[in-house]
Protein: isochorismate synthase
Amino acid sequence: MGYPAAVWRMPHAQELNLLISIQDGIRQQIADLENLPACFVIHPFESPSSGESYILEGDVLITFSEDMQLLRLTNRLGEEQPAVQQLFDRAKQLSAQDEVKPVVWNGLSRRSETDPASRAHYTQAVEKAVEEIRAGNFMKLVLSRTKPGHYSKDFRPFQAFLRLCSAYASAFVSLVNLPDRGEQWMGATPETLVSVSADGIFKTTSLAGTQSIKNAEGDLIPPKKVLWGQKEIEEQALVSRYIIECFKKIRLREYLETGPKTIRAGNLYHLRTDFEVQMKEVNFAELGTVMLKLLHPTSAVCGMPRESARTFIKNIEGFDRSFYSGFLGPVQMAGESALFVNLRCVRLSEGTATFFAGAGITEDSDPMREWEETEMKCETLLSVLT
Ligand SMILES: C=C(O[C@@H]1C=C(C(=O)O)C=C[C@H]1O)C(=O)O
Structure:
């Protein structure tokens, strides 16, 4: 019906959540986590100068089980509201149709296995980045690329979302409808940027270092047997150091740091360190908002030093990252907020599917291996959706 909407599943959760914003457009506002009403926030990689995020207001909030049983419904506008009535009538009609029409899976299609021009552009950018790092201008740069696909009119994004949910239990899986832009964004990200629980626990993570879960023979490497090279260890340590620098800026010393440990994200292993703060103990109620401003974009998706890395990325990548490597997630849902880095994602618009993936570049980077890494990251979605 053309409303802004989001459907998501939290990591390791069974419940699915749907938010429908009965509004003409999407409000832009600073993501002030403590003072926003229940909503879904989406924010691009490049923050606008106003610092504002897109806020999808939680006018209708529905929680349901994986087998589509309704668990909870909140309707902020009231039953009598004509737009809400229309919405519920339409939902009834559709569910009646679905009962008679068996659901057929219509996946996305890849445009090509590998586009040589795109690979050449990316590997040349990596070479340039390595030169810059060796010259001492940067410590780390994260370079990304896109991969095109397409989908037909019969493609049902919600079915695709359900597939991602069942394939990736530990990911934050989401599908966001942005009618103003004629776009939908879908993804299964492994990376928490900032979360604040109802009982005042703040969390953030540093995630970096990537390898396939399979060895050259195609056998699964057990997590305990995973070995990391110096390049990945340093690359991830840099992100941890960046987070600690952010804590230092606000003179926060009482944080718990756990890791790094090997975690699995679909077809990939990463290194992750978890940071936790008891907000009541440090008497810092706005920690979530303050850290969100300081952290985004972290050196897991941008680089160090941050501002010059951002300029370098903009000049060399040759496309707008838009919401890729920005952040998204529910805010103030039963007192909890959880924002994730928008990775392993695809933009759906007018039949074109655009997959986004990047890789952290250090002085030891090999351009072809970084390209392969972005291919594997695109596979996280492609293997489930095609
Ligand atoms: C940039 C991406 O992922 C990030 C970069 C990683 C890396 O360089 O090893 C690993 C995890 C993410 O923090 C992506 O998925 O596109």
